[in-house]
Amino acid sequence: MRVTSKGQVTIPQDVRRRLGIEAGSEVDFEVDDDAVRLVRRAPGDGASLATSMRGRGGVTMSTDEIMALTRGDA
Fold first, then answer.
1. At a CB cut-off of 8 Å and minimum separation 6, what does 36 contact?
2. What distance in Å separates the CA atoms of residue 48 and residue 42, rounded to the nearest whole number?
3. Gap between the Cα atoms of 53 and 47, Å rounded
4. Considering its fold, how many domains does the chain have in total?
């Protein structure tokens, strides 16, 4: 298997089938000394993403003001 100049490799079809990897699937690489293992990430509910993003917005509008904008009431 050859690595492209962008660091990409193609996962063989039989491996994708065995691991249940489809387009859009998330995978991780587990490194152990000089070996690497490809593992499929379990689908998450987005809670950890939402938690990591909490408090990062710079919007000073209230929820009601934002909703009024999206509805065209402003």
1. 29, 30
2. 13
3. 10
4. 1
